[in-house]
Batch of 2 targets.
Target 1
Amino acid sequence: MIEYIDVHKAFDVPVLTGVNLTVQTGETLSIVGPSGTGKSVLLKTTNGLLVPDQGDVRVDGESAYFDGDETLRRIRGKVGYVFQYAALFDSMTVCENICAGLPLGVNIREGWVLEKVAQALEDVNLDPRQVMNKLPAELSGGMKKRVGLARTIVGRPEILLYDEPVTGLDPVNTAAVSRLIRDIREKTGVTSIIVTHDIEQALEISDRVALLEHGVLRFVGTPGEFQASPDPVVRAFADRRLAAEAAVRIMEEDAADLKKDMEEETP
Amino acid sequence: MNKLIRRGLLRPLARVGRTAEAVAEHAGQMASLSWGVAAATLRGRVSMRSIIDQFWEMGVQSLPLVLVTAVISGVVTTQQGGYQLTSTIPLYVLGSVVASSVVLELGPVMTSFVLIGRVGARITAEIGTMQVSEQIDALHSLGRDPIAVLAAPRVIAGTITTPLLVSIANVVGIFAGMVAARLSLGLGYQSFLYGARMYWHSWDLLYSINKGIVFGFIIPLISVHMGFRTRGGAEGVGRSTTAAVVFMIISLLVLDATFPSLFLN
Ligand SMILES: Nc1ncnc2c1ncn2[C@@H]1O[C@H](COP(=O)(O)OP(=O)(O)OP(=O)(O)O)[C@@H](O)[C@H]1O
Ligand SMILES: [Mg+2]
């Protein structure tokens, strides 16, 4: 179980201003919201990659911030994090990168290790023979993303945090990754949080959907409730057509502002 | 009047205050980094292979440039010394001038400058890039300790490699000076070595190697520290690399200046 309790985080400006959320063990929750609202920041407070300014995050009842280094280490051991931009180690080959997801001290030359690496690559729809010995710089963006995913799942964490796992993937690979997320969950009962802009994926694979906006969760509920919500912001996210209308409205407002500014400037 | 005081007095003072604050912040972070490196080393968390890799990159690959620098230090000291020694001072004194200049100052300092440019800048750029591309976060999330994985091997290798490089630079520098003295001033090897021995203290070598150890510790320490502090994309990496080089040069000069009063009394 993961509990976010009144999480605040500011950089130059406030980003999170009191997020409260509980994710049950075995649950899959998607977080959606406009770009730059702090979805990645929220995810990073779970395993201490960013420290909240105020509030607490508890994983299975233990705090990553108040219960000492040993607890933080234990939390990091059970939380797997899929980075938005893969964050592969660029001095290491694909194989070595994925090995880094295995427990410390495994020998990369042992047969079972290579088998695990190959299996993880196949799980993310990559051909092990082709990519195993490549460096990250030699991979496409979508391939990097999937290697990053493989590196996280190979260690079989109890909790998986996915930061935009399908953004930038083609439809076939998007479907493959969605299927993988669901398979992992069915086989191992992991708790997952998925940050995504792919609303269809979110509605399809999650038990609950949360909408982060202006530093707080504006909505948390089941996919059904999400789609039925009367809140205009939620509706803009739930419905492509409404999103498109919202975009047009924003652009029209911007254009009007610009026109007004120009009129004021030229007397 | 008020304005004058504010501009003339308070503003510079505020600037001094800010600088002091920044220095204290860096010092604190570097102290905790050193502590982390020591702890990781004592707990056996640092892989031997990565130390050897760093040893190779810092030591062996820097050797050619260190050798060239040492040769030039020796040759230039000989020629300038020879130019200044007038007929009243016997020429063999040159042996002592060259030996002490090289061992006490030029060997350790020039070698360290080579390492700042060749090794320090690279470490900051490398770790800075890892920082801005979330690779450091990835290490944390995989339960790895960036201090044990990245900082410790570099600091350990630097502390071992630099005194070795300094020793080689000393020998090569003196030898080059000796050859130059013979070719340009006609001073024989025997006389040169006689002069070198006359004013030689056995303590001098230890002093030189001590400098090598201190500089060899501080260069990777600063460069790793600046790498971890990097923020803001490729531009940030460039900025922190430049800052790290300036920081290393100044620290080296300050430390070098404190050495005589600490050890030569
Ligand atoms: N390390 C950091 N230092 C300074 N500011 C940061 C940092 N990380 C994030 N921010 C700021 O916090 C805000 C939220 O960033 P975040 O990456 O969480 O957005 P996001 O919701 O994940 O957006 P996207 O959907 O585009 O990934 C942004 O304004 C960003 O500039
Ligand atoms: Mg993000």
Target 2
Amino acid sequence: MADSSAPKPSSSVKLVLLGEAAVGKSSLVLRFVNDDFQPNKEPTIGAAFLTQKCQLPTRTIKFEIWDTAGQERFASLAPMYYRNAQAALVVYDITKESSLVKAKHWVAELQRQASPGIVIALVGNKLDLCEDDEEAAEEESSGASATAAADDEEGEESEAAAESTENNDEGNNSTARKVSLKEAKSYADEENLLFFETSAKSGHNVGEVFTAIANAIPETSLKGRNAGAAAGAGTQAALTGANENSRVNLNAASGDGGPKEGCAC
Amino acid sequence: MFLQNLVQKAQQFIDPAVLPGPLGNSSNGRPSKAQLFRHQFRLPDSQSPLYEITAELTLPTKKSGNDAKSPSKNWDKSNWDRDRGTHHVGQLHLSEQFLCFSTVQTSFVSTASASASAGFTGRTHGTGPAGNGFTLPLCAVRRVERLHTQSYVFALSITTWNGYDAGTETKPGAPAPPKLTIQLEGSRQQCERFCDGLKRGLRQGIKEVENMRTVAQDCYSEYFLYDEFDAVPATEKADGTARAPPDTGLGTVFKYPGNSRKLRDRSKMRLWHEYLKEHGRNTTLVRQPDFHRLIRVGLPNLLRGEIWELTSGSFYLRLQKPKLYQDTLDKFQGQGSLAIDEIEKDLNRSLPEYAGFQSEEGIGRLRRVLTAYSWTNEEVGYCQAMNIVVAALLIYLSESQAFYVLSILCDRLLPGYYSTTMYGTLLDQRVFESLVEKTMPIIWDHLVKNDVQLSVVSLPWFLSLYINSMPLIFAFRVLDVFFLEGPKVLFQIGLAILRINGEELLDATDDGTFISVLKSYFARLGESAHPKSENPKHRAITNFQALMVVAFKEFDGITQHTISEQRSKHKSAVLESIESFAKRTSIRNLGPESKKLSTNDLGFLYDRFYVVLYERQQRMEMIQAEIDRKAKLAKQRASEIVTGLPTNTPEMGRLALGASQTQMDYDAFREFLAGVAKWAVTDSPSSPMKDFSGGNYFTNTLRNRPINTSPWGNGPEPAEHEFLQRLFKKWDIDGNGALSLQNVVYGLAPIKGNRDIMSSISYFFELYDDDGDGKVDREGVLRISEALLFLSRRGLTGSVSHGPEDIDKVLPSKDEQFLGAVSSFIRRCFEYAEPDKTEVDNAADGVDLLDLGEKDETGHAETDDQSEHPKSPSPSSAGESSILARPSTNTFGQTKSRVVSANAALDPASPVHITLPTFRMLVLADETLESFFDSGFANSFHLADAPLPSNIVTSPAYLGLSHAPPTSGSGLSIPGPIGPTPVGIASGGVVGPGKGLRGVLDNIVTDGMRVAAEVRRRMDEAQRELDRGASTRGTEDDEDDDGEEQAVDLLEGAEANAGATPAKTPAKPSMLLDTPVVGGPRIESNGKARAGSDVEKSTMFER
Ligand SMILES: Nc1nc2c(ncn2[C@@H]2O[C@H](COP(=O)(O)OP(=O)(O)OP(=O)(O)O)[C@@H](O)[C@H]2O)c(=O)[nH]1
Ligand SMILES: [Mg+2]
């Protein structure tokens, strides 16, 4: 909205959020769209749809966000939502090992089934829960890497591996963190994913994720359907735009603060 | 006004004949008659329609006062109704535990036409699925009298249970439920039969009276009426204990949602008070038109739970199993499950805006209800959205009541919604879309054009019953009607929402706008629908009221029947898409080892795996159904038999419906293999057995597991062989006696994937290295040899570069070659075997080898053999080809008695073994074996790239086997060294498992034949049973036929009457909506009216 006067090219991007139940998908979206956090957020039923704009130096990206339900059995609904998605946020909970396994499944699913060239970001959420042991984690790398190494050996997708490490974790639950930065990062690198650790609660890194995605969307894929919609639908598009803006701005106006540097909305 | 119209219209349309299509047929997934019956009257699954008869129900009218309750002596049909009370013509039905009446002319007897059974599912309009009438548990009947009237009239007077003291002239007691007078219309014989059935049921019902009393105590109506009418102070029960209101949900503590003044809660209570007083409560409630109207205008807080229980039928479930909830909780106390983990995640995320769910109390109730249900239905377990629904229920219901309502929701009202694949949800979304397309083509086209996904908005509506879409107070009003009228209500409301917002939606060109239009509409539901209207009455109509009117008036054509029809139309497509998704995901998540196999092969294995499980389950179901059928036939006449299996049966186990099985037991594994490998098919499919002596080898194995006599479906009958058992054990890495898909894939991956002779040799070796010490003993060597012959007996296509298709054309010489190779393999094994240093104990050796022996019988068989075929030629001459020519004779047993060789390895006293390197060397030394391990073995598993023809030849390609003339035995020359199996010597006369290669093969044949014979015998038996059953049924049907014909006649006569009924009701002010006109409580019709005191009558039943 800051640059609403500037006639920057604007295009919309369909983004889908996937990940295990209760990892904080809806919370991330709520933080991004309303800069708000609700500790007792109802689980998403099916999917929720929200929009938010993201200003880049050269263009405006309007995210059409599809926030999906995380429970395993809702997985069969997912194709309905990631259809035509240009970007995906695959979220896991850094305090829960199994959520990374699930995230890997989603990445694999997207790589095979979603539109080719989809930009995928892997996001480890609930960083705030690990703040205390964050310093420890830094030096702990010796201890943590042992777990990570073990995992790597057993193969990325082996559920058995996940379970065994989960058991290990039960022993040393002195630290809330159950997925090491290193492990997730190396997986993300391997699969060519954007990678962030975030906290929907504190807002840490949330804006960055979306900005990074916006930047990663290739210029070419921004044409097609979105350009058509913006240009072709005339009054209707305008009306739509107005609605969106009023809704979004209302909420965003209140607490547009630190976390969203990159995303000037 | 709206409601008035609705009711009028409703009554015009009670016409079952408008419903096309067969509904009673379960083979296409449609409900059986028994199911329709249960659905209509909301009865538990244990009930079936036993008897039915056309009848006229007479209820005392309000105004008629006391004398109306005493049928006069000279009562007759023509003056009865006109004078005294409301009467309804309808059908009276009797099930095991219930007496039901409905003005909707439905029939559930076997001969009834489909539309007659499905009648209630038609246009329900204002009258609800059951029409006017009652669902009366027989245990609530206190007394049934037969009124002696004029010749042909057969009338019953039913006095129901009353929880209160009757009271006296001066101290009025609580109101008694109405006395029901029912006039049966049918032949004398029909009436008698019905009454006999009724008497039986009533006697049974006595056992449940106590249950009923306790269950009814949880109903607010008991407290509600007692409170005002009983002479005893309301705060005390008869026994002096304090009378406390029953638990009516968290609302009593944390407030019910909404402003009760605005909701006119008091007026509604007064109306209900009157209704309950007049028409009975909980068990004895009689549904009259007012009942439906009172529900449409929204239930009052305190009675909401009770009426939900009654209209959904969960009350009857609770009545049957009142302890189920508590027992389930107790039984699983402290146990964990996946569902419980999932529930915990969501406890704090359920209606967080309601204060009760910020409290430990509320969360605790929610936890217990969800947990208990997850245990009673582990297939559903827990699904997100259930937390929201249950949280909502708990505002009005006690924990235990909510539990039963949840059961009804998941099992009956929302089938498949919360299942692991959520097929019900997906299916209903598809149905909803097609209804939108049909009823609002313009909106539909707009959605399609703009690529807006309707289900994104509508899926949560259905899944959470509008609870998290609409403000709570309105969602509850939808629920009120939903429980009464069934799932179609969700569709009607959904369509109405779109219709009302049609214009705005047509302006929306993307999902975002579409969603925000609807969001803002929901937020305005409480506002006036016509804010600018001059007419204050119009202004008073809220958006929600308008929504209800559109839903039930404009979309009254959407009936349960429409929904079922659409469901069956879209079902297969939905299931297929779920299955293909599940397949993709499951294959992708099989783990790294699976990458050794091609995606095609994995897909093939996936299909084969689940097809086998699915088909087996089907067969089991059928067998079970057959058993049940017989049991039922023996016991009683049940219409379910006529209509076939219970609905879901034909699809049980189908993956998209939440396959209950994902593990393969040993038999399933055999069946699985028979579809991928020729050698796993038995040599002697279902042909009768003549000779049992040969089966010895197997009787032992058969005895060790439950004998499975089920036929193998259409597929080839699998073989049984020790090799299969070993393979199964190896693949079963978790050691739980069953294989998952992953186990199968991981088992096959090294065989099919490695394609490297060395690993294939060690794979095989390990199969036989039982203790994993890298050695295989003498016994093991023999078994390996047997296995090699077993595997090669149909030829091995892989070793030669033949295509897989020419199974039949495999040259016999190849097989001879193979036999020769195996023979020399055995010989060499013993040549190169190393003495077993660690084990010197002969006895132990002997014991080792006994494990599979079948002593006595085998001994006999063996002697016979010996007498027929005295001697084998010298051991050294490896005459391979002749083995082939002498199929059924050669055994190790016969040669064992000869002392053959000086080779120490053959000395039974000195145990020996071969090691992997030895084994490898021996294999590599033989071209044929080398080729077998190089590719033959791997290729014998036919996956996607070279599947087996579906109708694989079941007689062995290897012809010599069972047909060769025994005379050619002269050429018999099994290599000598095999002969002296130590067992025989060690345990005199006992033939060990090493009885012989050919013996094994022969036994496979004979055993297979024996099993086949057994199967045939059982099938014949089943057929006979079936025929017998059919004939019994036939007679019963005949008997019914004449009864039925009359019933139909009557039914047609009654229809005219049904058309007349609305005339009596339209005047009823329907404006409860606007002006709750409430009369003061009337003080008639309490229990004092002793009906029939002066009527000549006989008591049929009394307690
Ligand atoms: N401490 C902490 N809690 C979080 C964070 N993000 C989410 N949560 C909490 O985690 C729970 C689940 O959050 P949701 O955003 O509803 O999770 P979801 O992934 O959308 O869950 P589903 O809709 O069920 O798939 C809520 O109780 C949140 O308050 C975070 O960054 N830090
Ligand atoms: Mg969510």
